[in-house]
Amino acid sequence: MYSGCRVSSDSILIDLPRIIALTREMLALAQAGEWDGLVVIEAQRRVLLDARLHGAKPNVLAACAGQLRDMLAMDNAIIALAEQAKEAVGEELKQFGKGRKALSAYSSNENY
């Protein structure tokens, strides 16, 4: 399952499968554009990460480096999807603003 990263008494190792699963769920939600759900899952993951990464032994983290890199790669994919969504929303707002200006111009000329 997690080569080189075995479950032991170190808490990061115990929760790493759950952290990775939450990260996968976050990526799936980002791909589906379900940003509200992603925020909820990210908060759950953050609690685990904050509790488990702080104070983790360097040798334990090194043993799990591959899984942590995979998690960071998923995080980067989520960030890229969020940036695309942000740009799309920005474009929609820009188009909305143009529509409002056109409507305002039409309304002000309607009286002539």
Describe this structure as you would to a colleague.
This protein has a domain of 71 residues: Flagellar protein flit (Methane Monooxygenase Hydroxylase, Chain G, domain 1), CATH 1.20.58. It starts with 10 loop residues before the first helix and ends with a helix. α1 runs antiparallel to α2 and α1 runs parallel beside α4. The chain is rod-shaped, with a radius of gyration of 22 Å. It is 81% helix and 0% strand. With 112 residues, it is an all-alpha fold.
What features would you highlight for this structure?
Methane Monooxygenase Hydroxylase, Chain G, domain 1; single chain; rod-shaped; 112 residues; 4 helices; mainly alpha
Estimate what percentage of residues fall within beta strands.
under 5%
CATH architecture grouping of one domain: Up-down Bundle
By secondary-structure content and strand pairing, the structural class works out as mainly alpha
The first-level CATH class name of one domain? Mainly Alpha
Write the element-wise H/E pattern from the N-terminal end onward.
Answer: HHHH
- The CATH homologous superfamily of one domain is termed Flagellar protein flit
Question: What value does the Rg take, in angstroms?
Answer: 22 Å
Q: Quick check: average pLDDT?
A: 83
Main sheet record: none
Kindly report how far apart the N and C termini lie.
74 Å
Q: Which of globular, elongated, flat, extended, rod-shaped describes the shape?
A: rod-shaped
Percentage of residues in helical conformation: over 70%
**CATH topology name of one domain:** Methane Monooxygenase Hydroxylase, Chain G, domain 1
- Low-confidence runs: none
Task: Tell how many strands the DSSP assignment holds.
Answer: 0
* SS field, number of helical segments: 4
